Amino acid sequence: MKSEHAARMLPADHDQALLVGRMQLADGPTPVVVKGGKVIDVSAHAATVADLLECSDIASLDGPVVCDTAALADPAGEHPPILSPIDLQCVKAAGVTFAVSALERVIEERARGDADAAQGIRGDLEARIGGGIRSVKPGSSEAAELKAALIDAGMWSQYLEVAIGPDAEVFTKAPVLSTIGWGGEVGIRSDSSWNNPEPEIVVVATSDGKIVGATLGNDVNLRDFEGRSALLLGKAKDNNASTGIGPFIRLFDGTFTMDTVRDAVVDLRIDGPEGYVLTGTSTMREISRDPEDLVRQALSEHQYPDGFVLFLGTLFAPVQDRDEPGRGFTHKPGDVVRISTTSLGELVNTVTTSKVAEPWRFGIRDLMRNLARRGLIAA
């Protein structure tokens, strides 16, 4: 995708950042490090990003220069295709981590996935329980009291359980190697009529569970499917091209820390092919569960020998009408989705359907064969 979007790909302070990613070079998918104004092929040191993130001193690694960072920021710049910055990591996601998203999930549930019914439910729920959800800490005694009151009022929901209860919703979002990087097409199911992007920050952890950095993600959501039944979560979330990540992982250091993530403001802009524009903002300070707590819950009784990434959830729930009054927002093929924050840059993808998107064919066996053929791992 060579366009004006490229100018915002990198963090505002990219000259101070240490970035990790992947590019499609002539030989195959290749780990790269972005530092000192250069994009460097580090595959001689680490065959995969999963390996690279386990290295003790990534900043010292060197190798052939793929291109200058100026080429990445230039709309006309020449550089190899940018892939999703992860490879062998498991892709996890946390849901209902913001009060607004909790209310919207309850709306979907009560509307049974019917966008026409959502508008009438929204105002009533916000007035009756919105303040309570915003004011309590999940898992606290106050949250338990709110739960009891909502049960008595006949307003309890499985979504409120994970919003204010002790256990977060953590699920597997996508198979290994299936995620889409900067500039690629993200897919929605062709049979979905009510859906939206979910702009999120994604934290990256190594095999020992250490959080080493963060990137941006689009946890594409099908509101009609999940709204009909929470048991359709897998069908709503895991489809061809349904997960966007990138453009690069920014590693934690003296200028970028977990507190930077906690303070981040994530912006969203959607430009529709018919001229429609939607904007929104997520403020990470409004998250109900701390990112480190979400990672701890993902690790509580599970191991990830190749590391994992975790989508932290979104505050964004689009209600702005697109076509018919009262129906809110849903995607159209050709929508350009831009997710950005100053410390991580901008992830840009174009929306298509999962059936039309390029089929996912390059799996783990293909990657291992490719790396063996290149002499990067033993055959």
In short:
Pfam families: FAA_hydrolase. Helices cover 26% and strands 27% of the residues.
What is the CATH topology assignment of the largest domain? Fumarylacetoacetate hydrolase, domain 2
**What is the average of the pLDDT values?**
90
Q: Please provide the ordered H/E string of secondary-structure elements.
A: EEEHEHEEHHHHEEEEEEHHEHEEHEEEH
Q: How much of the sequence is in beta strands?
A: 25-35%
Task: Count every beta strand, where a strand is a DSSP E run of 2 or more residues.
Answer: 18
CATH class of the largest domain: Alpha Beta
CATH level 4 superfamily of the largest domain? Fumarylacetoacetase-like, C-terminal domain
The number of distinct structural domains comes to 2
Unreliable stretches (pLDDT < 50, length at least 5) are none
Q: Structural class, please?
A: alpha+beta
Q: State the major sheet.
A: 11 strands, mixed
How large is the count of helical segments? Answer: 11
Question: Rg to the nearest angstrom?
Answer: 21 Å
Plain-language structure description:
The protein is an alpha+beta fold. The chain has 2 domains: 213 residues, Fumarylacetoacetase-like, C-terminal domain (Fumarylacetoacetate hydrolase, domain 2); 66 residues, no CATH class. 26% of the residues lie in helices and 27% in strands. The chain contains 11 helices and 18 strands. Strand 1 and strand 2 form a beta hairpin. Helix 3 packs antiparallel against helix 6. The radius of gyration is 21 Å and the shape is globular. The mean pLDDT is 90.
